[in-house]
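[Automated response] Your request has been received and processed.

Submitted sequence:
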Amino acid sequence: MKTSEKGRFGEDLACRFLIKKGYNIIERNWRSRYGEIDIIAEKDDNLVFAEVKLRKNKDFALPSEYVDSRKIRKISMTAGVYLSERDFGNKTIRFDIIEIVNSSPPLIRHMENAFYGEV
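Generated structure:
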């Protein structure tokens, strides 16, 4: 499976997971000049920018450990561009990580408020 196919597979799993939890998926793979946000979703009064990390196993590191300060900065800047182009009223902005270990069945962990961005 190519890297892009793995990414799509992980994001598909994450979207199905979020929908089951009552989230509405607004965007997938939204891009700006700063980077990409895997999933933008909303639930209740929250607007969620989610980074999806898929790994074959957790032997080397947990998938979420691949979200470093550089990646957080890129997501935060991209979220700022997204918000400047749209009006979401008084929604609370949240940055989540959805980590997936591609076992059988896949293990999915949704980390709400995984980091704080500056938007």
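Summary generated for your ticket: The mean pLDDT is 89. The longest helix spans residues 3-20.
If you did not submit this request, please reply to this message.
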